[in-house]
Design a protein that fits this description.
The structure holds two protein chains of two kinds. Chain A has helices spanning 2-10, 22-33, 48-57, 75-84, 99-107, 121-192, 198-225, 237-247, 249-254, 274-290, 365-375, and strands at 13-18, 39-45, 62-65, 89-94, 112-115, 233-235, 258-263, 270-272, 297-306, 327-335, 379-384, 390-397. Chain A contains eleven helices and twelve strands. In chain A, the strands form three sheets. Chain A has a five-stranded parallel β-sheet with strand order 2-1-3-4-5, sandwiched between helices. Chain A has a five-stranded mixed β-sheet with strand order 7-9-10-12-11, with helices on one face. By secondary structure, chain A is an alpha/beta fold. By secondary structure, chain B is of the alpha/beta class. Chain B is built from five helices and six strands. Chain B has helices at residues 13-26, 40-47, 63-71, 90-95, 112-123, and strands at 4-9, 29-34, 51-54, 81-85, 99-100, 103-107. Classes of the chains: A alpha/beta, B alpha/beta. Chain A binds chain B through residues 172-173, 176-181, 183-185, 187-188, 191-192, 211, 215, 219, 222-223, 226, 229, 231, 275, 279, and chain B through 12, 14-15, 18-19, 21-22, 25, 57, 86-92, 95, 108-112.
């Protein structure tokens, strides 16, 4: 640790001076570049707009910033720069320091103040290094906070699932019995009691359909309570995907969907519950199909991969379940449909979330799918694509 | 063809009366219903059914306990038992080809056609 700090204190920096007063800029330049040089890269801008251009085109880690420039005055200058370059360390260089302005500048993203004429190169070097370290800690803290926030929402999610699961098994059993009674009652009326009345038959048909629908919903609920019963065998994932496609063949034909397949050969077999993984794939395929107007396209890719060093391909909640360098098989389902509204994308795994309320969506598909994958030690990522549509990735350990 | 005798053991009165109505309407079956699991063994001994449709979760005695009593009774031990239950789903039943732990299961609600198929495969005829 001490060694690192020592090294950091002598490491040459990449610096920009944003200063419209040529004399002030020259003083800073000589402090930074005269041997032993503090900076290895030094850019100088005399306006905010030229500074932005330089920062966009160069790798700069620290900006020494005069607040009053020809095209920007006061704290606006900090706001503009820190919003555009959130990782940049900003040190204010001012001729007229006031405590109030100082505090405001710090709250807006600056790390410290230099008072013109009141420092030498030794003090400048020290301040720049301290500021870089503070900025680094600030970024780390921010990242940790984001991770914490995401983990917390995942925790809430998993608690919700547990509650729903517990409730579901009880409710499902109680509701299935009366449903069976209605089903056999209607079956008897349809099969045995013949009445020459169109309305009579229509009523029975409606009751029958409503019963079937209620049963589908209740079966979805029961899936929560039976999620611990798995029958895992080594199986070729390509075969499972193909079986799932057969199950949604009707919807594919009906909506005239073009299914494009891109499967890698000789993939390692996966230890999976075939029926459950089929259930997950059918859920995702159906979501893809109904999100598209007629004549859409679904691209299914299956390939092997390796988890990267920073595990960026995984959601925060699953990062601990995989190790960097782990071999995985990825199933990608890519559609060109309507996508998921931005304000809903964080809720898609919530029980009872659905975009198809009232038109056949129960909102259990994805939450059940996530649970099934968790049980397999696998992960799921669903994202809107930049152009149009959604890409779902299932990541299985091999 | 002989009329086959079916004993239904299930505490859901509405369900058992609807099922009896349907099975008897098809014409090949004589159906008896027991809604109180404690009476199942005695009724079975008197009725000597060809098959027993047995619910699993019942208030006073659970289905598997009734099944054990029946298996331990020499006059009943060879009668096929079909478990008829809302505790499992049709997918689960299908994934095991209808057999779980050596017994035939039918999920509630299943269509009459599915139930008849299980009855037929258990007693061989219809």
């Amino acid at each position: 640790m001490n060694k690192n700090i020592k090294k950091d204190f002598s490491r040459p920096l990449d610096v920009i001076i944003v200063e419209d007063n040529q004399v002030d800029a020259r003083i800073l330049e000589s402090m930074l570049m005269d041997p032993p040089a503090i900076a290895k890269t030094l850019k100088i801008a005399n306006t905010l707009s030229s500074a932005i251009k330089i920062l966009e085109e160069n790798e700069i880690e620290i900006a020494i910033l005069d607040l009053n420039l020809p095209d920007s005055k006061g704290v606006e200058t900090i706001v503009e720069i820190s919003n555009r370059f959130p990782k940049l360390t900003i040190v204010i260089n001012t001729g007229a320091y006031e405590d109030e302005l100082g505090l405001e500048a710090l709250s807006l993203g600056a790390q410290d103040f230099l008072l013109k004429g009141k420092y030498n190169s030794y003090v400048l070097n020290k301040i720049l290094r301290y500021c870089l370290e503070r900025k680094r800690s600030e970024i780390e803290l921010k990242q940790a906070y984001e991770t914490l926030k995401e983990t917390q929402s995942q925790l809430i999610q998993s608690e919700k699932m547990k509650v729903v699961g517990g409730l579901a098994s009880g409710v499902a059993h109680e509701v299935k019995n009366p449903l069976a009674t209605i089903l056999y009652g209607v079956t008897y009326l349809i099969d045995q009691v013949k009445l020459d009345d169109d309305n009579y038959n229509l009523v029975l048909k409606n009751i029958r359909e409503a019963t079937d629908r209620a049963n589908v919903i209740i079966t979805g609920l029961l899936d929560f309570s039976t999620l611990n019963k798995f029958n895992k065998v080594e199986y070729d994932i390509v075969d499972v995907v193909e079986k799932s496609l057969l199950l949604v063949n009707y919807q594919i034909d009906k909506n005239i969907i073009n299914v494009v397949k891109d499967y890698e050969n000789n993939l390692a077999p996966l230890l999976i519950d075939v029926i459950r993984i089929e259930q997950v794939l059918v859920n995702i395929l159906l979501n893809a199909i109904v999100s598209m107007d007629k004549s859409g396209r679904v691209l299914i890719k299956i390939y092997s991969s390796v988890i990267s060093k920073n595990k960026k391909e995984l959601p925060a909640s699953d990062k601990d379940n995989f190790i960097a360098g782990q071999k995985v098989v990825i199933v990608e389902i890519d559609d060109v449909g309507n996508g998921i509204p931005d304000d809903e994308i964080n809720n898609i795994f919530d029980p009872f979330y659905t975009s198809r309320r009232g038109i056949g969506g129960v909102g259990l598909g994805l939450s059940v799918s996530k649970n099934i994958l968790e049980n397999h030690g696998a992960s799921i990522v669903i994202k809107n694509k930049v152009d149009a549509g959604v890409i779902a990735k299932l990541i299985f350990k091999t | 063809m002989d009329c086959k005798k079916i004993l239904i053991v299930d505490d859901e009165k509405g369900f058992t009366s609807m099922l009896k109505l349907n099975l008897e309407a098809i014409g090949d079956f004589e159906v008896k219903v027991v809604n109180e699991a404690n009476n199942a063994l005695m009724t079975a001994k008197q009725f000597l059914p060809d098959i027993i449709l047995l619910d699993i979760i019942m208030p006073n005695k659970e289905g598997p306990d009734v099944a054990i009593e029946i298996r331990n009774e020499p006059s009943l031990k060879n009668i096929p038992i079909v478990f008829l239950t809302a505790t499992i789903t049709r997918d689960e039943v299908a994934s095991q080809n209808g057999w779980i732990g050596g017994n035939i299961f039918v999920a509630k609600p299943s269509s009459l056609k599915e139930l008849l198929a299980s009855i037929e495969s258990s007693i061989g005829v219809r």
